[in-house]
Amino acid sequence: MDARLQLRIQRYGWDLAAWDYEPLWRSQLAEAQAAVLDTAALAPGERVLDVASGTGLITFESAMAVGNSGSVFGIDLSANMVQAARRRTAGQRPGNVCFARMDAQALDFDDASFDVVLCSLGLMYVPDPDQALREMHRVLRPGGRMIAAVWGERARCGWSALFSIVDAEVASEVCPLFFHLGQCDTLANRCGAANFVVVERRRLVTTLDYADADEACNAAFVGGPVALAWSRLDVDARNRVRARYIEAITKWRCDRGYRVPAEFVIVAAQSGATSTVDSRGKLR
Fold first, then answer.
1. Structural domains in the chain, sorted by start
2. Phi/psi of residue 263, each to 5°?
3. Is the pLDDT score of 276 beyond 50?
């Protein structure tokens, strides 16, 4: 797919999903995001960039960790995601966090601007993730840390059926290689090719828990990666898609709810030739 077209699809799709994303996904992603933050081991005074920050789920946690002496900058391709995050900023008034709309492939920051770069579940949507990783490396200071998380193997993510189900109704073109970075050591290898020194890699196996079928479907279609395609479906098509998706996740039904298996890949890397760890065994 043409890279510019893919960027537009991502931007408009997440603009549509922005207002439903946090209520539908916050609890589902909490374990993976906690693992990203634990791996990052942020310290007071550090300068942090959160790439694909969305509504700020990790950004605000990072701001608390670095304190008033540090700073956190969240960037996202979606203007509505940025707006949603800024609304939270206005309500909480943290003086050390800000947001801007920006393409991860062309970061508008000087070289060596940050101590830490985080990217939680964003690289799958970038047309050229290698370029995004190179940009993350560029804006890190020598010895700076980068922690990235992506969805894991397709076969280990029970919700993955939604892509083929939607594509049967309308060409979604969400991300042709959505699960590619989660295969084997692909993400770690891509980080190495971008001149990072990979110091930690892990797979996190968990479940996405939904109270009922409506919640599971809304997360998949309304507040998720296929929101733009979903917006193009008429009522009959939506009914077909929902029925097929519910059938696809039936094996994980528990009473009225669903416990859908999921996997994440988390990679920690360092900018520079030598990696070090602190007294807690965390990347420094």
1. 3-154+172-207+261-271 (3.40.50.150)
2. -140, 140
3. no
